[in-house]
Amino acid sequence: MMGLFLANPAWAVEDFMLSINSLSEYEEGQHSMIHGKTITLDEEPVSKVLISVYFPSGIIKTSTNSTGQFSATSPIPVEIGEYDIVVYAKKDNRYTSAEITYKVTESKTKKIQEPVTKTPKISEKKIELDPFSKMLQEIEKQKKDEIKREKNIKERQEIEKGRQLAKEDLQNDLKESEKRNEPNSPRNVFYRFIQEVDSSVRAIFWQQFLFTEKISQQAHDAKEEALKDGKSSFEAMKIFQQEAAVTQKEIMDVNKNLSVKYGNSTLDVQNMFDENGKLPRED
Q1: Helix (H) or strand (E) holding 100
Q2: Calpha distance 26→61 (Å, rounded)
Q3: Which of 62, 65, 158, 266 sits at a 20 to 30 Å CA gap from 167?
Q4: Hey, which residues does 214 pair with through a beta bridge?
């Protein structure tokens, strides 16, 4: 009996994830099928996500429906072996991938036997081939087996080459997409914004942004490291939130140091503020 194989969900960004499933085992000659779903952190479906399924026999592209679901079938029947299938999901310059493995076994379907024509019985004695004839038969069989093996190896190599080229094309597309959207990155957008800010505080604004960017990057790296260590997506998100958290005191210290550094205040003035960032009241 063939069971259902579920792949661990993979996170693209903090707002949607991809999960896929398939049978864990197929028989030779069947078509393998991959099912999947994209949902938000609140388990809401994400529609119109572009899906690329990399089967050994070719690439199938589709998209998620209104319920966030999709399915794809291999272009040609599967052959005996074990296969890793990669699924890529992309929407609005955000993307992720998930991988699933299934194996293909020999078909158990019984062959239909052809009618056997009986011939008159000549002798009870079996006709045995001489040693030389047996040797020729064995050599011929070995030649056929070797040709078949070489053909299978060549076909596998061609399939693997096609998969690799497809992966490279996808990575190039993603790099080009990132390059095209570089002007709209948070850093560039904010930099254009502060050009309109008074020059006396422009440097402070920029350093505040760099501080926030650094914290966010550290949190992102911690989340990615947690996923590599085998933690679930929800555990990794908790780690991200913990690393991204900044206390009021940390923010006050940053602003205090920047105000002094860029001449907008003095250390004596800054030290007059209490731990809540307020000046003492004088009644």
Answers
A1: strand 94-105
A2: 22
A3: 65
A4: none
Q: Per-residue pLDDT averaged across 118-145, rounded?
A: 69
Helices (H), the chain: 131-180, 186-194, 199-228, 233-244, 248-261, 267-270
The stretch 172-198 carries a mean pLDDT of 79
Q: Which of 81, 67, 87 is nearest to 20 (CA)?
A: 87
Is the pLDDT confidence value at 116 over 70? no
Single out the residue of 19, 54, 49 nearest to residue 37, CA to CA. Answer: 19
Q: How far is the C-alpha of 90 from the C-alpha of 191, rounded, in Å?
A: 28
Tokens of 245: 């958290």
Structure tokens at 85: 């299938």
pLDDT band with cut points at 50, 70 and 90 for residue 12: very low
Write the CA distances from 120 to 115, 117, 126, 140, 232, integer angstroms. 16, 10, 14, 30, 72
Burial of 248 (0-12, 13-18, 19+ CB in 10 A): exposed
**Three-class DSSP category at 9:** coil
* 8-state DSSP, 115: P
Tell me the β-bridge partners of 11: 17
How far CA 110 is from CA of 32, 76, 113, 117, in Å, comes to 21, 22, 9, 21
Own/partner long-range contacts of 67-71 (Cβ < 8 Å, ≥24 apart): 67/37, 68/37, 68/38, 68/39, 68/44, 69/35, 69/36, 69/37, 69/45, 70/35, 70/36, 70/37, 71/33, 71/34, 71/35, 71/36
Half-sphere exposure in the Cβ direction for 86 (13 Å, CA): 12
Coil, strand or helix at 96 = strand
Task: Output the six-digit token pair for 16.
Answer: 């949607």
